[in-house]
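Here we describe the complex-level prediction in full. Unlike the single-chain runs in Section 2.1, the two entities below were treated as one system.
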Amino acid sequence: MSTVTTSIVTPDGPVLEEDYEMVSCTAENGELGILPGHIPLVAPLKVSSVRLQIQGRTDYVSVSGGFLEVRPDRVTILAQSAERASDIDVDRAEQAKQRAEKRLQDKQANLDQIRAEQALNRAINRLDVASHAR
Amino acid sequence: MASLRDIQSKINSTKKTKQITKAMQMVSASKLSRAEQNAKAFVPYSEKMQEVVSQIAASDDATHPMLQTRAVKKTGYLVITADRGLAGGYNNNVIREVYRTIQHQHASTDEYTVIAAGRFGRDFFKKNNLPIAKEIIGLPDQPDFADIKQIASEAVEMFLEAEIDELVMFYNHYNNAISQEVTSQKLLPLTDLSADTGRSVQSMYEFEPNAEEILKILLPQYAESLIYGALLDAKASEHAARMTAMRNATDNANERIDDLTLTYNRARQAAITQEISEIVSGAAAQQS
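The structure predicted for the assembly as a whole is:
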């Protein structure tokens, strides 16, 4: 089966660069599945997991603050942060989740509220992705 | 002339200083190589980002406040300095340049505000009663994107909410290990985007949902990444500057030790000569 070269790049360096048969991810307005030969496309991604499939195996990567750039032979995901399922620090994500939940209950200023929600979102996403680690 | 013992203690203390400066030089050298690696790891991200952003910005139906120049009522200065000194002119060069620009461009403090990254810059602006909008200190030597994310997005927000009408960054650009120069870069509005789109225009993208929506998400991220890039650059410069400063200090200490050793030996010899001549003259006095 044909493959598409996929790379995930963050400001702290590349996270992954491999060939995959299919890339699925959650864009701002819905799920996207990219197969080789896709037309050039740019789409922002939600804080979500990216699923990469090859030979019956699925790799999971958590991304936040990212977008997807597709060319027929290449998929590039630029994200402000991204971790493979096996690299996620579960304890830290768990702590971040609790911290954010606590802050949400405190009900402070509006801005903090939004930030806490985003932090919670990221933490939940990380934990979700980490649960897929092999 | 100083006594032998005085000179000896001076030599010893200079030697101690030399040990410290030498150690700091080596620490900075290893930090510099780490910083260079970080800057290198950032290159693929920034290049790709630049490429995509400039292509989207080049498509004609896309407009965004961050791309538009508006009348400048208030300027934001993002000043990146170090938290610690002992780095030669590193901090002073940046601060002097910013201060001169401010004096030159603005009549009153209403026309600008400073975003200070690094303790030296912050302390200077505070001491001189210049307005500081935001500050961040205690950035690690090898910063992650997460470390700078908050202040970067706050700076971008200030622009979007029209608190400031342009944002200029001042930092030390890293040329190589022995040369760093103060650079000012106009960050916002993003005006020089379409400059190098000629390279890969052949692939016109589909935008999902549309170019405008994407710009809304992408441009803040792009500006934040530029700030992060500047920080990495500045950190590399900082370590390089400190390394150079400490090497100079070590060289000076060596020179001083040599000088003092020479003086010490001269003094020792003079003392011996004097002793001999005293003995000789004493013996001569007994014989006569």
